Amino acid sequence: MAAPRPLRSLALAALAALLSTTAQARPAPGAAAPQKAQAPVTLDELYARLKAAEDDAEAKGIAKLIERRQDRSGSATVDLLTERARQAMSGGDLPLAIELMDRATTLEPDWSEGWNRRASVFWRLQDHASAIADLKRTLVLEPRHFEAWAALGRIYQSMDDKPRALEAFRRAAALYPRMDNLQSAINRIAPDVDGRDL
């Protein structure tokens, strides 16, 4: 027995509404599927992209991303101490900058960038031995810290220790081949260390 006409019309209207809603929810043919949220890029991926970068602008952008990650100490107190140390350095108060970075590295001894920053202050104070010690500590904590390798190279170069300078510059170049002035520094030192072609 057929359903009464008003009931059948109501059922057909409900079915049409349901089909219309389903069609709207489904993407049109050829339309891009909705994108899933992407996982954050890891440091390992950033270092791989830095090494493979095909132009200077791309490499600099990736290097900045890496440096931003390294800048995170994980502690608001340490970040404040580090910012105050930066201000003290800018104002020429290097002893205060050292004191502040001493506190930062005491609070967060596993933060590689803290040691790298303290090394920069020691370098400004012409304390090469302390700067080298802090850079080596940086590199124990993060062996891919290309800025620390480059800084180590510059310090050894200033001490006329060309073999160590060349090794440090080459380690930096292996991580960041397009780093500013790095290849020219290697080209200047390499003949004295490796020997000149006859």
UniProtKB/TrEMBL annotation:
The keyword Zinc belongs to this UniProt entry's keyword annotation: no
InterPro entries listed in its UniProt record: TPR-like_helical_dom_sf, TPR_rpt
Signal peptide (UniProt feature, chain positions): 1-25
Keyword field: Signal, TPR repeat
A Pfam family recorded for this sequence: TPR_16
Positions of TPR repeats: 112-145, 146-179
Protein name: Tetratricopeptide repeat protein
